Automatic annotation (TrEMBL):
Pfam families: HHH_5, RuvA_C, RuvA_N. Its main location: cytoplasm. NCBIfam families: ruvA (TIGR00084). It comes from Thalassococcus lentus. Keywords: Cytoplasm, DNA damage, DNA recombination, DNA repair, DNA-binding. Residues 170-223 are annotated as: Domain III. This is Holliday junction branch migration complex subunit RuvA. It is found in: Cytoplasm. Belongs to the RuvA family. Residues 73-92, 108-127 form the Helix-hairpin-helix DNA-binding motif class domain. The lineage of its organism: Bacteria, Pseudomonadati, Pseudomonadota, Alphaproteobacteria, Rhodobacterales. Homotetramer. Forms an RuvA(8)-RuvB(12)-Holliday junction (HJ) complex. HJ DNA is sandwiched between 2 RuvA tetramers; dsDNA enters through RuvA and exits via RuvB. An RuvB hexamer assembles on each DNA strand where it exits the tetramer. Each RuvB hexamer is contacted by two RuvA subunits (via domain III) on 2 adjacent RuvB subunits; this complex drives branch migration. In the full resolvosome a probable DNA-RuvA(4)-RuvB(12)-RuvC(2) complex forms which resolves the HJ. The RuvA-RuvB-RuvC complex processes Holliday junction (HJ) DNA during genetic recombination and DNA repair, while the RuvA-RuvB complex plays an important role in the rescue of blocked DNA replication forks via replication fork reversal (RFR). RuvA specifically binds to HJ cruciform DNA, conferring on it an open structure. The RuvB hexamer acts as an ATP-dependent pump, pulling dsDNA into and through the RuvAB complex. HJ branch migration allows RuvC to scan DNA until it finds its consensus sequence, where it cleaves and resolves the cruciform DNA. Gene3D superfamilies: 5' to 3' exonuclease, C-terminal subdomain, DNA helicase RuvA subunit, C-terminal domain, Nucleic acid-binding proteins. The gene is ruvA. Has three domains with a flexible linker between the domains II and III and assumes an 'L' shape. Domain III is highly mobile and contacts RuvB.
């Protein structure tokens, strides 16, 4: 599995880029949004990648963040959504927009992507609404960004650190990450904080994804 590409851009097309990695050129297909964010030919670039294996072809698809890569994999799990459709959705909405559309049940936003019909858009929202919080939790903090610089990490002597109170430390981090995810979806800080606090009160040991899922149910329109 090729999970990341870092090298020099040889050329950019409308839907793919050729990246030279120490003399080997990799063709990587990307969404319009990702293509627009890549530097010009001759400059360094890095992308997280997902390898699609079929009987007649191998294709690499590239993403600027791990969160977007995970959304791609999740979108492709929906019946009728292939790699091209997934890139169209991500190119139109971006990872935050996909999170928002699924969390709010807004299949019309998904339908705005090129080539996505209403039935497919509804399937995306319905099939992923319970799976989405896990990916949303990944993007709650600072998202992992692919960089062209290969850092060299020097070994360090391990230093003993005091162990935090497990439940309190983990619970506080999960609540902060859940609150960040809800804020990214456009919820007001007050209502998001109230929902996360209520969800955490009902399930003190819940992880980030579980808190997001519970808070979204509390914030869902009643009636």
């Amino acid at each position: 599995m090729i999970g990341r590409i870092a090298g020099r851009i040889e050329y950019k097309s409308t839907d793919h880029v050729l990246i030279d990695v120490r003399g080997v050129g990799y063709v990587v297909y990307c969404s319009e949004r990702t293509m627009a964010g890549l530097p010009a030919a001759g400059e360094a670039a890095a992308l997280f990648t997902d390898l699609l294996v079929r009987e007649d072809i191998l294709q690499l698809f590239g993403f600027p963040t791990l969160v977007e890569k995970e959304w791609h994999r999740l979108l492709m799990s929906v019946q009728g959504v292939g790699a091209k459709a997934s890139l169209a959705i991500l190119g139109t909405l971006g990872p935050d927009g996909v999170s928002r559309a699924i969390a709010l049940g807004d299949w019309n936003a998904v339908k705005a992507a090129k080539g996505i019909g209403p039935k497919t858009a509804q399937r995306v929202v319905n099939e992923l609404k319970d799976k989405a919080p896990t990916v949303m939790a990944m993007g709650a903090g600072a998202p992992a960004q692919a960089t062209a610089d290969d850092a060299v990490i020097e070994p360090m002597e391990p230093k003993p650190t005091p162990a935090p109170a497990p439940s309190q430390a983990a619970g506080g981090a999960a609540q902060a990450e859940a609150l960040s995810a809800l804020s990214n979806l456009g919820y007001a800080p007050g209502e998001a904080a109230a929902a996360v606090a209520q969800a955490a009160g009902e399930a003190p040991d819940a992880d980030t994804a579980a808190l997001i899922r519970a808070a979204l149910k509390l914030l869902a329109p009643k009636g």
